[in-house]
Specification:
The chain is 22% helix and 21% strand. With 348 residues, the protein is α/β, with parallel strands linked by helices. The chain has a seven-stranded mixed β-sheet with strand order 8-7-6-5-4-3-16, with helices on one face. Strands 9-10-11-12-13-14-15 form a seven-stranded mixed β-sheet. The protein is globular, with a radius of gyration of 19 Å. It starts with a helix and ends with a helix.
Length: 348
């Protein structure tokens, strides 16, 4: 039993020292808070959610196999390109830099290897096939965005820093990341690597890896280099700071925004597709890459509902809808084919 418990305990991470973050405007009474009021699920609501998950069957699962594309990466990073690897894991190319967001290569997003949401498709490239990264960005510490085993591999086999919101450094230290490779930032703070500027920006969400919520901060990220600008939304509800971020850092060549895992019971902390389109407009975005759908079943809507909703309401917004592993950028065609419909048809 001890051997079975050890990996679970390790994956929980660590609780940061509250005294370290007293100067943050987001931190008070021992916890981080959203700037705008956000309703969280009450204990009674959690019981109903657990019951609904047990009853929902295959609603959130694809009917057939998801097509993957082996990433066709250039020898050097382009000025602005992206390869969606599934969920919120994106390999960005910005101003000649490789930047990896929320890397998750594990089969399940859970503290345990045999329970919890299981991925619908493999990651379309192996960790050892990644190029030499300039930085890894983490949006927050939920299991579908911060994966212990992937962090450990990247620590051993790459040399880049991990640029993270306040508090997440405690998790990384516990998992063996050297302190000099951990850059913790509050909203509005930035870190520069050569000409690459990484700015921690506001998000509306929450954090926690099992028993305690909100002892670490959550964020979005602005990635800038050589006149290329990308916004990575991570995981967030809609909030009024998108317009401020757009005014201060935009226009963006690319916005990477979550569209899935929405539900009326947690609408303040997850955007639906209509809200993602609104955020994209307020960010002064060029191309919109939708993420946070297709890979894990984390809500009650149908598997393809988020992308169909987005396409239906996009209007004149320029969407990129790649298969997992499909690279796009100024030097390649923009993927727009509705490949998910073939998945639905293949399942009968």
């Amino acid at each position: 039993m001890t051997l079975l418990r050890l990996p679970i305990v390790r994956s929980l991470g660590a609780r940061p020292d509250p005294a370290t973050y007293d100067r943050s405007a987001q931190f008070r009474d021992g916890f981080f808070h959203n700037r705008q009021p956000s309703r969280m699920v009450e204990e009674a609501g959690r019981a109903s959610i657990a019951r609904d998950f047990a009853r929902k069957g295959n609603t959130g699962k694809p009917r057939g196999p998801i097509p993957l594309q082996t990433p066709d990466l250039p020898a050097t990073a382009a000025d602005c390109a992206a390869t969606w690897l599934g969920h919120a894991t994106v390999l960005l190319e910005v101003g000649g830099h490789w930047v990896l967001t929320d890397p998750v290569w594990s089969e399940r997003v859970s503290p345990a290897a045999r329970v919890g949401p299981r991925r619908h498709h493999p990651v379309p490239m192996r960790l050892r096939e990644l190029p030499s990264l300039s930085a890894v960005l983490i949006s927050h510490d939920h299991y579908d965005h911060l994966d212990t085993r992937t962090i450990e591999w990247l620590t051993t086999n790459q040399t880049m820093p991990f640029v993270v919101p306040l508090g997440i450094g405690a998790h990384l230290l516990q998992w063996g990341v050297p302190p000099e490779r951990i850059i913790e930032l509050d909203w509005g703070q930035a870190h520069t690597i050569d000409d690459l500027v990484l700015t921690c920006a506001e998000a509306q969400h929450f954090s926690g890896r099992l028993f305690t919520n909100n002892t670490t901060l959550w964020s979005s990220w602005v990635v800038e280099a050589n006149d290329a600008r990308v916004f990575f939304g991570g995981d967030t509800g809609y909030h009024d700071a998108f317009s401020t971020i757009g005014a201060e850092h935009g226009p963006f060549d690319l916005t990477v925004l979550p569209i899935g895992a929405y539900d009326r019971r947690w609408r303040d902390v997850h955007m639906d597709p209509t809200e993602a389109l609104r955020a994209h407009a307020e960010l002064l975005g060029g191309v919109l890459l939708p993420i946070h759908w297709a890979t894990f079943d984390l809500a009650f809507h149908g598997w393809s509902d988020p992308i169909e909703w987005l396409v239906r309401e996009a209007g004149d917004v320029t969407l990129s809808t790649p298969k997992p592993g499909e690279r796009f950028g100024a030097d390649s065609p923009l993927p727009t084919a509705p490949w998910w419909r073939d998945v639905i048809r293949s399942g009968g």
